[in-house]
Amino acid sequence: MSEGLLFPPLPHRIESRAPAAARDISLQQFVRHATVTKDTGRVDACRAAFGVRYDDLRRHAGAIKSHTLDHLDLYLETFEAAATRAGATVHWAADADSANRICLDIARRVNAKVCVKSKSMATEEIRLLPALEAAGVRTIETDLGEFIVQLDGDAPSHIVTPMIHKNRASVARAFVRDLGAPYTEDPGELTMIARDHMRRLFARAGLGVSGGNFLIADTGTLVLCTNEGNADLTVSLPPVHVAVVGIEKLIPTMADLPVFLKLLARSATAQPITIYTTCITGPRRASSTNAPADADGPRELHIILLDNGRSQLLREPTRELLRCIRCGACLNACPVYKAVGGGHAYGSVYSGPIGAAITPHLRGLHNYPDLATASSLCGACFHACPVHIDLPAQLIALREKSARRKISPAPERAVMRLWRWIMQSPLRYQLAARLARIALSRLDGMDIPLPGPLGAWTSCRATPRPGALDFRAWWSTREQSRIGASGGPVVHGEQKARARAGESPPARKDGGVA
To answer: Model-level pTM?
Structure first.
């Protein structure tokens, strides 16, 4: 895993990475094609399945998550008791170091030399793979996308599609280099090469590691939603299974699960449902008088409930961020995510709008001072979110907090103070607009970059040219034309409505009429 991609020197600024990504035409094409395809598919799939009821369904899903988060302490205790009754061992991890230590202790106790791991953002977050490798446990990502990223020493660029920034040629080169495979760009052949390599490792692995999409509180069940059979092999073939799951993944009952299954796959990949939906309640059971022994499954199931800053998000202003089900829909809808060439520019495990909103809370606003500004606030992420998280409002709140703490650069704060002062006075606004028109008119016919920080605008755009008339002059001309055409004073809005109804104009305080 590349240290520089996920954990850059702090404080991290997205503007240090975005320009290079914006100039990489191939990267732009990969990311844009993938995200536009997924976003269009999501819209069509949700419209076909739910029609006008889609907004009601996502509000309902959001309400279930909000209820669970409001009573998270109760549901966590309920889950622990139910999972323990089913034979699982539940561990509590306050932070990344605690979670890694628990997993390493389990690996040492069972003398695991090889670990197979399915895709999990929580394990990316705590950097479990490097920790296992450092302890001498060979760890292999079994998700095809994650496997390719691992071979390249790269980092995932998308929550759902980790290799969104790569094409089949780069995959072919990686397989030739690291696996000794013949060069081919055929997707089917590439998949079979990876399959043959991984299947031998599943049989040797002493430890299987996964994440979890949902935890069912009343049954103690771990739910995995995947499109590749690797995850089922990861959690069933090795004798010990460790699941690292954020505490926010809880939902109350099994009856609530179908709501999220309907939304998750459609939002992530435009599928009606994921190919594999696996519900795991406890480890493999021995035979008893009531039932035969389970045919497969691990001897031990360990579930690590990860906090790592999540409890800090439980306060009311930020609680809705914990509703996230990691579908990636907000990334696919976001124009900024496309423009910066995917997730690497964000410098954190979680990218896109949800990453811009969560990362400053989890890793410190002073460490990621400008992630909240990496948004046009167009609202596309809010409309795409299947659990109704108001991401634009969360990003605005972070911007406000950054301003209060004076985290943004001093020149930026000075410019914003000047802008506020100008906007507070109509006279100052008119004067500033006039001066701006004069300055831009001087550049007429010269396509040159603007000086200083303004150069960021003209680096990828033409120098703006003022129109023949400014807005106020255009509006005045328009109104004069209307007066001339009607032969009398202009009648607006409420006055028109009153005139049609035959009512008199409302009286003014000075005795006249409005």
So the answer is: 0.84
